[in-house]
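Reopening this one. Same input as before:
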Amino acid sequence: MSTQRPLVTVIIASYNHGPYIEESILSVLGQTYPNIELLVIDDGSTDDSVERIERLQAQHGFDFRVQQNQGLTYTLNAAVERARGELVAPFGSDDVMLPERIAVQVDYMADKPEVGICCGNIELIDSEGKLFPEARQRRDIAFRRMDFDDMFLERKAYPPAPTLLLRRQALLDVGGFDPQIRLEDLLIELKITRAGYFIDGLNVVMARYRKHATNSYRNHRFMIENILRTYALFADHPAYEQVKFKALNSMFLKVANRDRQLARELLAQIPLRAFNRKTWRGLGRLYFSPLERH
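Same output, byte for byte:
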């Protein structure tokens, strides 16, 4: 293993992803980049994840620990504390890395200390690993450099979570992940850009994001609560209310004919002055569209 190139620590926090965890780990072990430290933590799974991981660990010798359920952000912080890598990649236990991903990112970040996070593009796969139709992919997002306002105001396409590679020093500069906010990627991106670093998004497909019944994004209440709590940490920004109501309107439209109780709760938080086209579309769905079942 090369000692000349920076060590990259990949952290996989596993929780009840038995059907997917082996493919996720093997995609890390199959990286072309030669200097990777893999830390796998099972966060209290109740399925057969531990047995599956133990079989792979016996073959490949990566660091594997089992703990009672602590939550993702706590688990990531504990892993970062013992990580030896200059660069850190938190990676979903249901996602898949493409083989050149880490090599491309390390080469790109090598002479750019101002870049705190590097990301790329993704493909979407279903629970069986089949690619979604091309129209639903995020393969072709152009290169972009993002600062704090780009992120906070959503001026550019967000970094896909399965492609994040973070400087460990940038993580330490901002105090790591916040254990009180369980949606880890948005807040760490805002904190790191607020600290003066950039996020650079490369026009390279780096990972496959798996969409399935237990994805966090499907838990609409979880998503909006954590997004609003994240934005509230930056309430001193002059555009804070604009950002808050934009998020509320977007989620209201999304859930209007899926979770009507939540939709009414969100609508009650949107004053008339903050209504936009999504609010009116959401009202139409709430009162005139059949309820969708998922």
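So the earlier flakiness isn't reproducible anymore. For the record, The longest strand covers residues 198-210.
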